[in-house]
Every structure is written in C-alpha cells, then in structure tokens.
Automatic annotation (TrEMBL):
The name this protein goes by in its record: dTMP kinase
Organism: Babesia duncani
Domain of life: Eukaryota
A cellular-component GO term for this protein: nucleus
UniProt keyword RNA-binding, yes or no: no
Length: 216
C-alpha cells in the first residue's frame, strides 16, 4: 500500500470541561479563513453521527445501561470512524483542527471512571499523531463557575479534578503545548496562533511515521 504524505497539519485541543477550547478553535478558524488557509474542524464526540449520538445519550444521563469499558470503546470507535476522513484531509493539504482527541478519552476514562491506564491506551493505538496539542490548562475550581457547568455526566468538581490530574501523564510529550486558559482571551488566541504558524511551516510527514504514541 502506498504511504500517504500528510501535507496538512493535525492540530488538537485538549483540556477538562469549560476551559475555552471551542472558543479558541473558533478564533483560530477565523484567522485561517481570513488567510484563505484550508482547514476542517472535527469534534469528538460529534453528536450528529451514529456513534456520537449514543455517546451524547450517555453524557446527558439519558442512557445509563452502558458500562464504563463500553463507553471508552465507543469514544475510541468514533475516532476510528473519522480516521479515513482525517487522513484524506491531511493528505490533500487540508489542516484539521480537533476539538478533543484520544488524550481526552484516556484522561476521562482513567480519571473519572478509574479504568486501568494501560488498558485505555490500546484502542487508540495507530491513530494519526497530532503535529501539536494545545492543552487548555485551568484548575477545576475556576471552570465550575462557567456557564452551563454541571449539565453533563462528568461535570462535577471532584471528577474534573481527577481528570485534570490524569492529563498530566501527557505533559512530557514533545508536541504537548500547555496554554494558561485562565488568562486574557486575546493573549491566548495570539499564543496559539504563533504556535500554529510555526507548525504550518514544518515539512510534510509520512503517514507510516505519524502514528500516535502516548508515552515518551
């Protein structure tokens, strides 16, 4: 099989709930649009597809019969469901911005559901590794005061605190970029954009050499 060349960049945003990920993704998208830079936004979960819709039922507490292991695998299944489309975008020079990725799946399953860390890694092994991950860092004691907090399954301060700690496992990954999400919106936007400009100037990657690795 021909090894695809990924001329587009994979840019992921991670963090606990209500840290401003969606806002910064929108601001970045607006900048790229203004520069006529082709890109797509992919959200996990996407509550409009079949798998994401089922995940939504669980997160909004409308579906309670699914085990925590099944939920973890559902999140992973949706990422694999989008794998071919993401590779298609990247191999055609279209940058992809991810609103959460496999790191969220692992952090939430270990932090909120107390699943075994090593077990949670396996389902996502082989996904495309991001060129950069922006980790929106904000302690849960601040996020709990944000609008609409508490409407979903994991939106409790004690759970978010455990997830916040779980995310620290990824802090030494070379593409992991910590953003202080508790600072001025424009400062955050500019910091992210400067990092993205640098990433966009990098050489293309081969797909075979771009498989996600959760450990340094």
């Amino acid at each position: 099989m021909e090894d695809k060349l990924l001329t587009g960049k994979l840019i992921a945003f991670e963090g606990i709930d209500r840290t401003g990920k969606s806002t910064q993704i929108q601001l970045l998208s607006q900048r790229l649009q203004a520069l006529q830079i082709k890109h797509e936004i992919v959200r996990f979960p996407d509550r409009n597809n079949t798998i994401g819709s089922l995940i939504h039922q669980v997160l909004t507490c409308k579906e309670k019969s699914i085990s925590k292991q099944t939920l973890h695998l559902l999140f992973s299944a949706e990422r694999w469901y989008m794998y071919d489309k993401i590779v298609e975008y990247l191999s055609n020079g279209i940058h992809v911005i991810l609103d959460r990725y496999a790191y969220a799946g692992i952090a939430y399953s270990t932090g909120a559901q107390n699943l075994d860390y090593n077990w949670t890694l396996h389902p996502d092994t082989g996904l495309v590794e991001p060129d950069i991950v922006f980790y929106m860092s904000m302690p849960p004691k601040f996020t709990k005061d944000r609008n609409e907090y508490g409407k979903e399954l994991y939106e409790r301060e004690d759970i978010q605190t455990r997830v916040f700690e779980s995310y620290k496992r990824f802090s030494s990954l070379p593409y992991w970029t910590v953003i202080d999400a508790n600072t001025d919106l424009n400062v955050i936007e500019n910091e992210i954009y400067e990092n993205v400009k640098n990433i966009l100037s990098k050489n293309a990657r081969k797909l075979s050499e771009s498989k996600v690795n959760f450990q340094v």
